[in-house]
Design a protein that fits this description.
Layout: E1 5-11, E2 15-16, H1 26-41, E3 50-54, H2 66-73, E4 82-85, H3 91-105, E5 110-118, H4 126-133, H5 142-147, H6 155-166, H7 170-189, E6 200-203, E7 209-212, H8 224-228, E8 248-257, H9 259-265, E9 271-280, H10 290-301, E10 310-313, H11 319-328, H12 341-344, H13 351-365, E11 370-377, E12 381-389
Parallel strand pairs: 3-4, 3-5, 10-11
Antiparallel strand pairs: 1-8, 1-9, 2-8, 5-8, 6-7, 9-12, 11-12
Helix pairs in contact: 1-2, 3-13, 10-11
């Protein structure tokens, strides 16, 4: 069977809403990551066959095929095409799957899988809220409404359903959120992100220019009391902004190559794609999909959860990784070992290859072999990717 390899993986450090990265146009920010992948791999830019880019809010500055626009803003020649992908929060993880499938099919040798989201400049929900406010209709057509009469699919409703189903308390969710910040703080102190982050120049409030190299959302010295004092998002609920993922600006990407491309480049691969799959689930509870999707993936891969050394399970909300660990009997000490979206941020369309970048570098840092990545996605879906560090 043909193989797909990752030879370069990079991301920007996350930027808080209206924070350090908010001055960057998302197209230019994405181009910075594309350029870094070219530089780190040493590839001739003209050899790139395609750029696949995940992005959720494809409107405004992220409209009109953000992938192609990022190519035109980068050092890649005009001959390199690009296309944009929306599988909600799994958009760039799906970009990685499509890239791997392209090189495994033999139709391409060098594909960049990437993602970008500027949640400061293109706020979440803009693609659905803007047309509805202008009387242009809504994504839930008559047939969906008949099948799901409860109304709009809401992640905030879904996550409270998960909390009730699995019996978590707010105290448990807040404790997990604290752990995410503590792990991220420890990783930053140990320079664990140094090799994965692309420094980008930013302007500070006082006009000074500096390089942005540290994830801006990490709460250094976070306490349980501070997290517990954050207002709940819904009355009588359990979810607050402190135990949910942070709004974030960022870009990320990986360079995927075939065996033929690997020989041509003459570089050592970082990882091999071992398995990739995607599964649909209940769109109402929505965020539970990583659990059956992981079971499905492990069965297809012929592996047991204990054979996986590290897991990246997107921290959209604290109960997601908690329920995933419990239901799969996974070791909590192997999950998001350098922190997750609660502390590092969740730049929607960029999170897929962002998590993959962190997973690859964590496997290398801790001298581990297999890693698994999964994330909940709008509409009740989940991608699962298993890699082998080489």
């Amino acid at each position: 069977m043909a193989e797909a390899y990752i030879v370069a993986a990079a991301r920007t450090a996350g930027g808080r809403r209206n924070g350090r990265l908010s001055g960057w146009h998302p197209v230019d920010l994405a181009a910075q990551v594309i350029n870094a992948l070219v530089d780190r791999s040493g590839i001739d830019p003209a050899r790139i066959d395609d750029v696949l880019m995940g992005c959720v809010s494809q409107v405004g500055e992220q409209s009109t095929n953000v992938a192609r626009n990022a190519v035109l803003a980068s050092k890649l020649p005009e001959s390199v095409p690009g296309t944009s992908i929306d599988r909600q929060c799994g958009s760039s993880q799906q970009a990685l799957h499509f890239a791997a499938q392209a090189v495994m099919s033999g139709t391409m040798d060098f594909v960049i899988a990437s993602g970008v989201e500027s949640m400061s400049r293109v706020p979440m929900f803009t693609p659905s809220d803007l047309p509805r406010s202008n009387g242009m209709g809504y994504y839930m057509g008559p047939e969906i409404s008949r099948r799901y009469p409860q109304g709009d699919f809401s992640q905030f409703v879904g996550v409270e359903m998960i909390v009730q189903k699995y019996g978590y308390t707010r105290a448990e969710l807040d404790a997990y959120a604290l752990l995410s910040h503590q792990r991220a703080e420890a990783a930053i102190a140990a320079d664990a992100f140094k090799d994965e982050i692309v420094p980008v120049e930013v302007t500070l409030a006082d006009g000074a220019r500096t390089l942005h190299t540290v994830d801006e959302g990490v709460r250094f010295g976070a306490t349980l009391e501070g997290i517990g004092g954050v207002k709940l998002l819904r009355e009588a609920g359990t979810i607050s902004a402190a135990n949910a993922s942070q709004v974030c600006d960022g870009a990320s990407g990986v360079l995927v190559v075939s065996e033929r491309g690997l020989k041509e480049l003459g570089v050592a691969p970082l990882a091999r794609i071992h398995h990739m799959s995607v599964l649909g689930h209940d769109p109402v509870i929505m965020l539970e999909a990583p659990i059956p999707a992981t079971r499905h993936a492990l069965k297809k891969a012929g592996m047991a959860i204990g054979q996986i050394d590290l897991y990246e399970v997107n921290e959209a909300f604290a109960p997601i990784p908690l329920a995933w660990c419990r239901e799969l009997d996974a070791d909590p000490a192997r999950v998001n070992v350098h922190g997750g979206a609660i502390s590092l941020g969740h730049p929607l369309g960029a999170s897929g290859t962002k998590l993959m970048t962190t997973l690859i570098h964590a496997l290398r840092r801790h001298n581990k072999r297999y890693g698994l990545q999964t994330m909940c996605e709008g509409g009740g879906m989940a991608n699962v990717t298993i890699i082998e560090r080489l």
